[in-house]
Design goal:
Length: about 240
């Protein structure tokens, strides 16, 4: 298995094989929380225009996301796991747009298969890759605004690579580093309603969810993230 690590939108375009688009803080942690909240259709989109058009055509849709980390006018929720973790999304369609994570999903045009990456479903992702056993795995770190490396995304890519190569990982050390030494620790100090400090622990709640989110075509031009259960190395 050939495992390559890429960065940002350009990396998403280069990715091939089974591709993991990584955004730990916070897009793909949010995506897992809303999936656990029962969402029927989770539609990641790149542009704000697409998000607003979908809402205009379908007023019952829920808009979630941010620009510059901040909830945008007309949105129902920001890109915050704390704000949505207790919400029942059963039967609902969510449109999700973010500065980094969802940009990677819509740009991974050369991938054979795309799943999301975050620590909240890390073991399911590792097990899924092992089950699929592809020739090429691409791990794409989306970073801050898809422009600047974010430690948590790079550390997640290395965590998955290590696991697949049979090398050890020290998750407690990752949490210590992110909270005390990395720019990511800023999430602990934020008081903005769009980025409450609780998001830090919620995004680093290791293996909370036993499923992967796989991108699939939805209609003519959209993608949908479908939940695939993976428990103890077995796909449900
Ligand atoms: O709101 C977030 O957590 C980030 C903002 S940014 O990437 O730092 O601009 O968005 P995400 O796409 O979840 O990384």
């Amino acid at each position: 298995m050939d495992i390559q690590i890429y960065h940002f939108v350009e990396g998403a375009r280069q990715a091939r094989g089974l591709t993991v688009i990584i955004d730990v803080f916070r897009a793909f942690s949010v995506a897992c929380y809303v999936t656990a909240g029962g969402v029927q259709n989770l539609l990641p989109v790149g542009s704000m225009d697409t998000a607003y058009r979908l809402k205009q055509d379908n007023p019952e849709y829920i808009l979630i996301g941010e620009r510059g980390g901040v909830i945008q006018p007309g949105f129902d929720y920001g890109n915050s796991p704390f704000s949505i973790q207790a919400v029942d999304f059963s039967g609902r369609t969510i449109v999700h747009t973010t500065s980094a994570g969802t940009q990677g999903l819509v740009n991974a045009v050369n991938a054979d298969e795309i799943i999301t990456g975050s620590f909240v479903n890390a073991q399911a992702i590792i097990d899924y890759i092992r089950i699929r056993n592809p020739k090429h795995v691409s791990l794409v770190c989306m970073g801050w605004g898809a422009l600047e490396e974010a430690d948590e995304d790079t550390l997640f890519a290395q965590y998955v690579k290590n696991a697949l190569e049979g090398k050890p990982n020290d998750f407690q050390d990752i949490v210590r580093y992110l909270s005390l030494e990395s720019k990511t620790g800023k999430f602990l100090d934020m008081t903005d309603a769009s980025a409450p400090p609780e998001d830090f622990d919620l995004c680093l709640s290791l293996n909370r969810f036993p499923f992967v989110l796989k991108a699939e075509p939805h209609g003519e031009s959209l993608i949908r993230l479908r939940k695939l259960g993976v428990v103890e190395g077995v796909m449900l």
